[in-house]
Amino acid sequence: MKNEKRAGGRRGADPSSGSSRLTGRGRMRRNVPVALAERSYEVEIGQDWLETIGRRIVDRVGSDRFALVTVPPVARRHAPILTRGLKARGAHVRRIVVPDGDATKNLTELGKLYDRFLDAGMDRQSAVISLGGGVVGDLGGFAAATFLRGISFVQVPTTVLAMVDASIGGKTGVNLPRGKNLVGAFHQPRGVYLDVATLRSLPPRQRSAGMAELIKAAAIWDAGFFDWLEPRIEAFLRLDPKVVIPALERGCGIKAEIVARDEREGGLRRLLNFGHTLAHAIEAHANFRGILHGEAVAIGMVFAAERSEALGFAPAGTRSRLESVLERAGLPTRPPSRPRRAYLSAIAVDKKKEGSRIHFVVSRGIGRAQTALLAPREILPPGWKA
Amino acid sequence: MKNEKRAGGRRGADPSSGSSRLTGRGRMRRNVPVALAERSYEVEIGQDWLETIGRRIVDRVGSDRFALVTVPPVARRHAPILTRGLKARGAHVRRIVVPDGDATKNLTELGKLYDRFLDAGMDRQSAVISLGGGVVGDLGGFAAATFLRGISFVQVPTTVLAMVDASIGGKTGVNLPRGKNLVGAFHQPRGVYLDVATLRSLPPRQRSAGMAELIKAAAIWDAGFFDWLEPRIEAFLRLDPKVVIPALERGCGIKAEIVARDEREGGLRRLLNFGHTLAHAIEAHANFRGILHGEAVAIGMVFAAERSEALGFAPAGTRSRLESVLERAGLPTRPPSRPRRAYLSAIAVDKKKEGSRIHFVVSRGIGRAQTALLAPREILPPGWKA
């Protein structure tokens, strides 16, 4: 076992005391900068402002032709409002609706997307907007990264998961039949726009799944934020804006801090994979169906915390505190029952392996994490049972 | 018509007087730096040194697992020698043979390549070597750019075309049914290694096609090099090393200078597209079969020079001098007979268009070029006949 870069334990300010500005209608807006030199951008957070977002995107990107990549329910509810804003600034908008679900993130759908871009007359000055969850973000983002060797890209996430995780950091890509996200590119968006009102139409199960990544951000990086969030889980699930907006601001802020220090996943950024080794194995076995990514991550985090305690990285009680918060958020915490060897073979094709060892993120206690290079049998010891 | 950045007319030193160093066996080696900050690398040129190249690649990349992407004739003749060098440094090598020809550059072959990478146990520390012409360079390079969001990549070009053009600059990608290179990424190689001895097995038609890009480099950038090359066309086609090595050195040097000043094709790099607007249209009509890229470029350059004279950019005689050199190099200079409207519609999907105008590269006389934003009907005026 070889220890690597330590990190974590930064103290965050109380999120609810964060700076905000009031808009004309007295609504709260928060901006989170993502500092990436000439690729810097901001995550702008607000409520009931989709049409304004449309206008801001045109002003920001300076393009007059957009492909709006989205999924059916979002296309119906939210796309018309966003489109109104884009058109108010004179832009051409081609709506492209792809099937919902992680199974859509494949090379065949990618090929169809390129065709639709050509149909829409897109050129190097055109831009792609992903409106929806992580699937359209990853698929639309990768199409933008590679169409004509790269065109502009904007994210308008409408799920908690995409808001705090998928839309920040520039990771785009598709799955292969043999594993998740095995193909992709780093392609930073020009801007990320959050309208928390879109979360109202999100099924409760999806809200819970998104909370897994928010809890993850607190668990690996900011014990103070974890303390703040712990008693507010139920208020977040009810979408109380006084909790949701500051929580998303801090969640995005943590992701932005980590990505700004390590844009291309050299080390620090690996911490964001806390819980993901087992999560990817669970998802691969489920063939990306029947289980949500956040649910798999919740299970993976509890597993990682348990292993961290067993391997001496985390103090006793870390796993139980994390598990309790995740359970209150409505998330599963135990892996589907399968033979150990099935999990072993799935983590061996995980792209984070290096030689025969795997970069596994261990907890150092709530608010702190590090990566450790572990052999698969250290991660899943003989006798381990799902 | 709107004029853009001017360029060209740099005086090159006589290539045959360039600095060289003798190796242990008294052979000539030349190094051309490609200056791209932290992505800098060198083009190393030599003769009969494929096994040494294998060892140098391992030392340079520091990986112990390679996918060697190549095409059938090259796999037979050259891959075993390169592999010997790689294995002498303890590397695992998986040879992956793809069909030859531009039709191989598609999303289906790309998907198969990813599968082969997984079969070979490739991870983020593994690297891809493209051994062959531009097709394996573009396809293997794009696979390397996107597998696990990007792994190391090395080029060992074995055609004149790939040596002077495709292997420098980091452009990778595949074709879509509706056009060439519509999908891709910029992904700089870690190194480019030329063994001019591999050109001996190149069919004469391929040697000629490669010369088109070499002549292009001289025609857009270096009148002195054009003067030097003009009387040495036949010696190059015979592969006289006293001509081939300095000519490749200068050809690579021109490409490297342009790419170093404009890595992401903001403006200057567009000059390298001299002749390519019509070339891409010709290739699209031929469905990428029956005509070599260099042949299409030769035709496209004569066309561009002719249009440059007609539009007042180039002095009279530019077209005829260029045409004469290309003919002596064994290249076609007249476009296949097709209706003007067929050419018009093909150039309208070209990815270099901006709004309704197209970035067309015009000659300003031998050794100088610039881009001009032209409407399709200025490029192909009414009454124009192929």
Which features characterize this protein?
14 strands; four-stranded antiparallel beta sheet; 2 domains; homodimer; Rossmann fold; 386 residues; eight-stranded mixed beta sheet; Dehydroquinate synthase-like, alpha domain
CATH architecture of the largest domain in chain A: Up-down Bundle
Number of domains of chain A: 2
Topology pattern of chain A, helix = H, strand = E? EEEEHEHHEHEHEHEEEHHHHHHHHEEEH
Q: What is the number of helical segments of chain A per DSSP (H or I, 4+ residues)? A: 15
Trace the largest sheet of chain A across and list its strands. 2-3-4-11-8-7-5-6
Q: How many strand segments of chain A?
A: 14
Q: What would you call the structural class of chain A?
A: alpha/beta
**CATH H level, superfamily name of the largest domain in chain A:** Dehydroquinate synthase-like - alpha domain
Any idea of the CATH topology of the largest domain in chain A?
Answer: Dehydroquinate synthase-like, alpha domain
Overall geometric form of chain A:
globular
Mean pLDDT of chain A: 90
Largest interface: chains, residues each: A-B, 33 and 33 residues
- Low-pLDDT segments of chain A: 1-13, 17-22
Span between N and C termini of chain A?
23 Å
Alpha-carbon Rg of chain A, integer: 20 Å
What's the quaternary structure here?
homodimer
Could you give a short account of the major beta sheet of chain A?
A: 8 strands, mixed
Fraction in helix of chain A = 40-55%
